[in-house]
Amino acid sequence: MLRDEQALTQFERAAEELGIKLIHANSPQAKGRIERVFGTLQDRLVKEMRLAGIATCAEANRFLDRYLPIHNRRFMKVPLRPQDLHRPVPKSLNLEDIFCLQGIRTVNNGYLIQWTSRTFVLARPSLTLRRQKVVVREWFDGRLSIRFKGKDLEYKEVEMVWKKPVVRVLAMKVRRRTPKYIPPPTHPWKRGPVVLGLR
Question: By C-alpha distance, which of 154, 48, 139, 155 is closest to 97?
Fold first, then answer.
């Protein structure tokens, strides 16, 4: 079932396909709680890494393996029930199709499909595909698929050279500036001060 891509984020879409109900933090108290955790990690973790002399991503990952158990022991709370309440993954779910970037695109009249800043053309175009909605999936290893009604379509990437639109410059009337008025020497303003006689 195709959904409006603007309605859900990628995370919300993946959670919905997994059958996970999201509970959004719509209260200031709930938002403050998670923001405090982010603040702690962004402040404390950076300082701990600096003190340990971490300089590369690989060193940071090794440091986290040591740091997170210490952090969790200090800040975690004991759960009310010790049982593992995680549900098993249903066999009908294909996790690879869920954990990817996914969007709905329309096939235009030239059988072109736009995805992010890339353009693809269908290898075997059909009149039935014109103006149809297709699902584009892109995985984090760079693979990409274009699917229509559950069937993967063949495509190839093309370089599009977009012509710049011709901008017409309309002739405009140029208004001449009127010169600044300079009064002549005989003008009353240029005469000397008038002395009024007192009676």
Answer: 139
User: Which letter does DSSP use for residue 27 in this model?
Assistant: S
Rg (Cα) of the chain, in Å, rounded? 34
Secondary structure percentages of the chain, helix, strand, coil, to 5: 30, 15, 55
Question: Phi, psi (5° rounding) for residue 133?
Answer: -90, 135
User: Amino acid identity of 137?
Assistant: R
**Phi/psi at 186 (nearest 5 deg)?**
-85, 0
* Identity of the residue numbered 95: L
pLDDT attached to residue 198: 52
- DSSP assignment of 74-96: HH----S--S--PPPPPTT--HH
The structure's pTM equals 0.56
Q: What is the pLDDT of residues 153-179, one digit of tens each?
A: 999 998 876 666 777 766 666 677 788
| Gap between the Cα atoms of 150 and 143, Å rounded | 17
At position 31, the amino acid (one-letter code) is K
How open is the CA angle 132-121-106, to the nearest 5 degrees? 25
1 pLDDT above the threshold of 60: no
Measured CA to CA, the distance from residue 53 to residue 70 in angstroms comes to 18
Nearest residue to 131 (alpha-carbon basis) of 105, 153, 97: 105
| Residue 150 zone, left/alpha/beta (φ > 0; ψ -120 to 50; rest) | left
